[in-house]
Amino acid sequence: MPRPARSTRRRLAWGTAAVLAAGVAVPTLAQATPGGGPASAGASAGATAAGSAAASPASGHKAKNVIVLIGDGMGDSEITLARDYTVGANGRLNMDGFPRTGAYTTYSVDEKGKPEYVTDSAASGTGWATGNKTVNGRISKTPGTDKPLPTMLELAKKKGLATGNITTADLTDATPAVQNAHVRDRGCQGPADMKKCPRDTLGQGGGGSIAEQTVTTGADVLMGGGKEHFDQTVTEGPHKGRTVTEQARKAGYRLVTDKSGLESATPGTPLLGLFARSDIPVEWTGKPAARGGTDPQRCTTSNPERPDTTPSLERQTSRAIELLEAQQKGKNGKAKVKGHGKKPGKGFFLQVEGASIDKQDHVADPCGQIGETVAFDRAVKVARDYARKHPDTLVVTSADHAHASQIVPTDAKPAGLASTLITDEGRPLQVSYSNNDPAAAQEHTGTQVRIAASGPGADRVQGVTDQTDLFHTVTGALR
Ligand SMILES: [Zn+2]
């Protein structure tokens, strides 16, 4: 299934944003508008329909704001598992209510551009962030030549939009990094982690570690975990001897580390929220899947290792939107926030990642995984509620790749790990994690994943597209 050649030089949205990638080929739009088929009937028809009152797409394809929400590892089986457990088999999650739905392919490539059928988060994120396929492990750089590719966040910023990037993982982890940074290997998260990225060091003319580049790229709102990488000391360049956190302060960022800090943040001052040393602790707990299955279990909807002071992804998302919106209303975000009739700002771009769906899938922990999917779904609701009142907002939700969990018959005997859950509607459900040696981490899979959207340009996600098409959907809507 070779896709059309990716060598066609194509007009890049927002005026050949060759800031970073002079000479880098940009993919064709290829299958981005598949046949203009009929609008999806809406996933929620006749059901309990969390989101069935979807805002009808604004006319035309121009968006003022774009919110991209990525459930890491959130394939159809992960969505279905969270749905079955919480709202029931015939219920609907918030993410099920988008008026436009399609599927996209997620494969990555090798150094020569040949398909690798199972992607990691770095290559897949590079796909939508830049419109280009790359090799597994690489962050927004080309596969063979290792050259930086401009990202949708960088392009939005260049265009004058307010920008935000938030996650439940390390802020330097692959999915947020694909918008903020360009490195050969996703492991190069802090100044002390640069072994695999010799050409990306400041001394060699690169941008430095992902943490350093996150600061220099300079999104207005940055939130996640991963404080340990920002607390490393910069070893070369103008900030040599400072920690990356100090570098961020010097660049004007206000650093917050908990809920109250997040609440006190003010528009006009760039915000760096680092809410955990590494990944933000998950919301739910339970027994991990085991060989031969588990006793039927109910999930615990709390986690003793998650401090009360940790903001939810839902609240991070609503605060990010408030701050970015206010930022666009006036220079300091104060004077022009109220009332209508103001000269409209340029809008904002925000990426939100629910990261630990993937991480809990890797460790075969169904309760952790469902809790993170539900937490992500609440963030989707925040975005959809905002878009209902601001129909000039394109909201897209998707995943970076599919994952291991499968819902199997209760009398099946999976060869790997399994657990039986009792759902909220009182029914037994067996989930299997059996796509790798049970003693090893469970793996991503290469199947296509759902993409759904509302607002200007949303119809472009219908049918079967590729992950790289999302770049053109977003940059095209903001053009
Ligand atoms: Zn993963």
List the helices and strands and how they pair.
Layout: H1 13-16, E1 65-71, H2 76-86, E2 100-105, E3 108-109, E4 115-116, H3 121-130, H4 152-158, E5 162-170, H5 174-180, H6 210-217, E6 221-225, H7 227-230, H8 244-250, E7 254-256, H9 259-264, E8 271-274, E9 290-291, H10 313-329, E10 348-354, H11 356-362, H12 366-389, E11 393-399, E12 406-408, E13 417-422, E14 428-433, E15 449-454, E16 463-466, H13 467-478
Parallel strand pairs: 1-10, 1-11, 2-16, 5-6, 5-10, 6-8, 7-8
Antiparallel strand pairs: 2-15, 3-4, 9-13, 11-15, 12-14, 13-14
Helix pairs in contact: 2-12, 3-5, 3-13, 10-12, 11-12
The site of zinc ion has 5 residues, from helix 11.
Oligomer: single chain
Poorly predicted runs are 1-59, 331-343
Strand order of the largest sheet: 7-8-6-5-10-1-11-15-2-16
Strand segment count: 16
GO molecular function, one term: alkaline phosphatase activity
Organism: Streptomyces iconiensis
Protein name: Alkaline phosphatase
EC number: 3.1.3.1
Structural overview:
The chain is of the alpha/beta class and 479 residues long. It has one domain: Alkaline Phosphatase, subunit A. A ten-stranded mixed β-sheet has the order 7-8-6-5-10-1-11-15-2-16, with helices on both faces. Strands 9-13-14-12 form a four-stranded antiparallel β-sheet, covered by helices on one side. Strand 7, helix 9 and strand 8 form a beta-alpha-beta unit. Helix 2 packs across helix 12. The chain is globular and about 60 Å long. The chain starts with 12 loop residues before the first helix and ends with a helix. Zinc ion binds next to helix 11. InterPro entries: Alkaline_phosphatase (IPR001952), Alkaline_phosphatase_AS (IPR018299), Alkaline_phosphatase_core_sf (IPR017850), TAT_signal (IPR006311). Its cofactor is Zn(2+); Mg(2+). GO terms for molecular function: alkaline phosphatase activity. Its EC number is 3.1.3.1. Pfam families: Alk_phosphatase (PF00245).
